[in-house]
Fold this protein.
Amino acid sequence: MNVRQSDLICRYGGEEFAIILPNTRAENAQKVCERFRAMVAGHLFEYHSMKFQMTVSMGIASYSRSIDQSPWELIKCADEALYQAKEAGRNRVVVY
């Protein structure tokens, strides 16, 4: 995944990661996430001579200056979109 110097990627939970893409519209964030999702789904991983494939599900939330949102509320929206992606069959990107 190509990231800009201004982007922040961090582990958020056991199997969850957060990616903060400053100054990025939701549509562009969706394109970035979709490219990453396809890259992971198409990659053959190997661990101790075992080969396997993985998929990722992602939820996107976008900050808006017109809505008074705390960082925690924004994370909650992204988390809700993530669960929608999982409930819809996994291996997909959902925008809140």
